[in-house]
C-alpha cells in the first residue's frame, strides 16, 4: 500500500519582510532580499509554501573586532584591520547576500565614537557595498538612543533592518525606523511572552507588524540551543495557528554566540563546526536570517540550505 | 473559539424594524460592528414576528454579504426558510438548526450536503427537552449517527446540548457542562460543540455576569463555538482570558489587545 503523507493545514502565515531597496524604490542596493512568507513549519515543502530561502548575513563591525577568538579573522588577512575593506571582502570575495554591521565602536568601552561618526561610517559603507544592510547598535541603551536615529537617517531610503528594540528601550528606535522607512529588530531575552508584548508595544507606535523581525536571542550548541529552539518553535506554532503578533521572521545571531564558546576559543576548526551546527539547528527551528562570522561556516550552512531547498517546488522565483 | 454574532435577529426591535422597512444600512452596520468586535460568523434570524421569512431571509443574506465574507448562520425552525437563505448565499453557511427528529434530519442533512453547509444539531426532539446528561448524549448520538449514515462530514457538525435559563432549570446547568465535556471525550475529536449563550441568563437580572461566567466554565469544558453578543466587551474579555488560561494563546501583558490585533 502506498504511504500517504499526513499534512497539516495552518491558518496563519509568517509576514514577508523586504530588506534593501533598489534605485527604483529609492535606495541604492543591487537587489532586495525577502524573508518569511511561509505557511508551514520549516522545510515541510509538501505541507505548505516556503517562498524564500533563509538568508545568511556576514557580521562585520565598524572597528576591528576586539574580543573575537584568534584565528577567526585570519581568513580576511590585512582587510581585517580596516572595517570597510573587511565588509567589501565579505561581499566581493565571499559573496555575502547581506551584511549585518554592528556599531561596536560607539560603545563607551570600545572607543565611544560619536553618533555623527557612526552615521558617517554607515554612509560610506552604503557606497562601498551594494547588498542590503542590517544595522545593530552597540548594546549600550543610552548610546544607542543617540546613535541609531542618526544612522537611520543616514540610511534613509535603503530599507535596512535596524535594531535592537528592547522592551525597556524601543520608542526612540521605533520612531526613527518608522520615519526613515526601515524595518526593526525586536529583541527579547529568550522569552516568548516578552517577544509578543514587545511586538504589540511597537505596533502601537504605528510601525506595522509586517516591518518587525524577531530576535529571540539564542544560545550556541551546548549553551542553551535547545531552549532557544523550543521558544522559536512555540512562537512559530502560535503564528501558524493565527497569532499575528508572533507571525514575524526570526533573525539569529549565530556567530556571536558560537564564537563565545570554550570549544570555538580553543580551535578554529571547532569554531567553524560549532557555528555551522548551531546555524543548521536554528534553521530547523525556523530561523529566517542567520548572522554569521566565519566564511567557511557560512559556505557550509549555505550548502545545507541549498540541499534542503532542492525539494522545494514552491520557492518564489527571484 | 468560533464566535457567531447573535445580533441580526428580528426579535430585536431595531432589526425587526429594519427588516420590515428593508433598511439595508442598519443591518449592514450591525454586521460590521459584530465583525469588528471579533465575530467569526453572523447568525441571521428573521425573528418570530416575520410575516414572510422565506423572502426576508434571502434579503438579509444579500444585505450582509455586501459588507462581509464571514460565514452566515441561517437561523430558522423552518427548513424552507433555511433553504431560501442557502440559495441566496455566496458566503459559507451554517444551518441553525436541526433537532434529533427524523423529519428535521431528513430535510436538513441533505440540504447541508447539497449546499456544502455546516450544520448545528440541537439535542431536543418532539418528546421535549432532555432532562439530564444521558438524554442529551443519546440525542446527540442520534444526530451524529444520522449524519454519518448520510455521509455528512462530522467535522462540519456542531452539537448544541440546549442551554436552559439558570432561573428555570438551575439543576441542569451542571449536566449541560458535563455534556459538553463528554461529547468531546467520547468522540474521535471531530465532533464540535456549540451553545446559544444568552439562553443561560434569559429572564435573570444580572445577565452579563451569568453569561460570562458560564462561558468561561463551558470553554474549560471544551466548548468549540458559541452564539453570543460580541459587542459585550466584558464577555469577550472573559472569552479571551479563558482561552489564554487554557494555553490556546500565548500570554503577554497585553494579551487582550494581542488577541484583538490578531483578529484584524
Q: How do the strands line up in the largest sheet of chain A?
A: 8-7-6-5-4-3-10-9
Averaged pLDDT of chain B, please? 95
Major beta-sheet overview of chain B: 8 strands, parallel, barrel
Beta percentage of chain B is 15-25%
Q: Number of DSSP helices of chain B?
A: 10
Low-confidence stretches of chain B: none
CATH homology-level superfamily of chain B: Dihydropteroate synthase-like
The name of the CATH topology of chain A is TIM Barrel
Q: Quick one: which chains have the greatest interface?
A: A-B, 17 and 11 residues
- Tell me the number of strands of chain B: 8
Quaternary status of these chains? heterodimer
Verbal overview:
The complex is a heterodimer of chains A (318) and B (264). Chain A is an alpha/beta fold. Chain A has ten helices and ten strands. Chain A has a single domain (39-307), classed as Dihydropteroate synthase-like (TIM Barrel, Alpha-Beta Barrel). Chain A has helices at residues 83-92, 115-128, 141-154, 171-180, 192-204, 225-240, 254-258, 262-266, 268-285, 295-309, and strands at residues 16-19, 33-36, 55-61, 98-102, 133-136, 161-165, 183-187, 212-215, 250-252, 287-292. In chain A, helix 2 packs across helix 3 (141-154), helix 3 runs parallel beside helix 4 and helix 9 (268-285) runs parallel beside helix 10 (295-309). Chain A is globular, with a radius of gyration of 19 Å. The mean pLDDT of chain A is 96. Chain B is an alpha/beta fold and 264 residues long. Chain B has a single domain (2-263), classed as TIM Barrel. Chain B starts with a strand and ends with a helix. Chains A and B meet through helix 5 and helix 6 of A and helix 10 of B.
Amino acid at each position: 500500500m502506498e504511504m500517504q503523507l499526513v499534512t497539516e493545514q495552518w491558518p496563519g502565515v509568517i509576514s514577508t519582510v523586504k530588506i534593501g531597496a533598489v534605485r527604483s524604490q529609492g535606495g541604492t542596493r543591487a537587489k532586495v532580499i525577502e524573508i518569511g512568507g511561509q505557511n508551514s513549519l520549516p522545510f515541510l515543502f509538501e505541507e505548505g509554501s516556503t517562498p524564500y530561502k533563509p538568508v545568511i548575513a556576514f557580521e562585520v563591525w565598524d572597528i576591528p573586532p576586539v574580543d573575537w577568538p584568534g584565528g577567526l579573522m585570519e581568513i580576511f588577512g590585512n582587510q581585517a584591520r580596516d572595517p570597510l575593506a573587511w565588509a567589501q571582502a565579505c561581499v566581493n570575495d565571499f559573496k555575502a547576500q547581506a551584511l549585518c554591521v554592528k556599531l561596536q565602536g560607539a560603545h563607551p568601552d570600545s572607543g565611544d565614537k560619536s553618533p555623527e561618526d557612526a552615521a558617517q561610517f554607515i554612509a560610506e559603507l552604503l557606497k562601498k557595498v551594494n547588498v542590503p544592510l542590517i544595522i545593530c547598535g552597540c548594546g549600550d541603551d543610552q548610546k544607542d538612543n543617540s546613535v541609531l536615529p542618526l544612522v537611520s537617517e543616514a540610511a534613509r531610503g535603503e530599507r535596512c533592518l535596524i535594531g535592537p528594540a528592547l522592551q525597556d528601550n524601543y520608542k526612540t528606535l521605533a520612531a526613527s525606523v518608522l520615519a526613515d522607512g526601515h524595518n526593526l529588530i525586536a529583541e527579547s531575552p529568550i522569552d516568548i511572552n516578552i517577544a509578543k508584548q514587545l511586538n504589540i508595544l511597537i505596533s502601537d507606535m504605528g510601525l506595522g507588524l509586517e516591518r518587525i523581525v524577531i530576535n529571540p536571542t539564542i544560545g550556541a550548541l551546548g549553551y542553551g540551543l535547545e531552549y532557544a529552539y523550543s521558544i522559536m518553535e512555540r512562537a512559530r506554532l502560535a503564528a501558524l495557528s493565527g497569532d499575528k503578533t508572533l507571525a514575524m521572521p526570526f533573525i539569529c545571531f549565530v556567530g556571536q554566540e558560537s564564537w563565545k564558546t570554550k570549544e570555538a576559543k580553543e580551535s578554529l576548526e571547532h569554531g567553524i563546526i560549532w557555528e555551522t551546527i548551531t546555524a543548521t539547528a536554528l534553521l530547523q527551528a525556523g530561523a529566517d536570517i542567520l548572522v554569521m562570522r566565519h566564511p567557511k561556516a557560512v559556505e557550509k550552512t549555505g550548502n545545507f540550505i541549498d540541499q534542503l531547498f532542492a525539494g522545494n517546488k514552491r520557492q518564489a522565483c527571484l | 473559539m468560533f464566535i457567531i454574532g447573535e445580533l441580526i435577529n428580528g426579535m430585536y426591535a431595531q432589526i425587526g424594524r429594519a427588516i420590515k422597512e428593508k433598511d439595508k444600512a442598519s443591518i449592514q452596520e450591525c454586521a460590521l460592528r459584530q465583525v469588528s468586535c471579533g465575530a467569526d460568523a453572523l447568525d441571521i434570524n428573521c425573528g418570530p414576528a416575520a410575516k414572510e421569512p422565506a423572502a426576508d431571509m434571502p434579503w438579509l443574506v444579500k444585505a450582509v454579504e455586501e459588507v462581509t465574507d464571514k460565514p452566515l448562520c441561517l437561523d430558522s425552525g423552518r427548513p424552507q426558510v433555511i433553504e431560501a437563505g442557502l440559495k441566496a448565499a455566496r458566503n459559507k453557511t451554517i444551518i441553525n438548526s436541526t433537532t434529533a427528529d427524523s423529519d428535521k434530519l431528513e430535510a436538513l442533512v441533505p440540504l447541508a450536503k447539497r449546499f456544502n453547509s455546516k450544520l448545528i444539531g440541537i439535542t431536543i426532539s418532539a418528546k421535549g427537552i432532555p432532562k439530564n446528561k444521558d438524554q442529551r448524549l443519546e440525542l446527540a448520538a442520534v444526530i451524529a449517527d444520522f449524519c454519518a449514515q448520510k455521509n455528512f462530514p462530522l467535522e462540519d457538525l456542531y452539537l448544541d446540548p440546549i442551554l436552559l435559563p439558570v432561573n428555570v432549570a438551575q439543576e441542569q446547568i451542571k449536566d449541560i457542562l458535563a455534556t459538553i465535556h463528554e461529547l468531546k471525550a467520547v468522540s474521535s475529536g471531530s465532533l464540535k460543540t456549540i451553545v446559544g449563550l444568552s439562553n443561560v441568563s434569559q429572564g435573570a437580572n444580572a445577565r452579563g455576569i451569568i453569561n460570562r461566567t458560564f462561558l468561561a466554565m463551558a470553554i474549560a469544558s471544551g466548548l468549540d463555538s458559541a452564539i453570543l453578543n460580541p459587542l459585550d466587551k466584558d464577555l469577550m474579555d472573559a472569552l479571551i482570558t479563558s482561552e489564554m488560561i487554557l494555553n490556546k494563546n500565548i500570554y503577554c501583558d497585553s494579551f487582550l489587545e494581542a488577541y484583538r490585533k490578531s483578529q484584524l
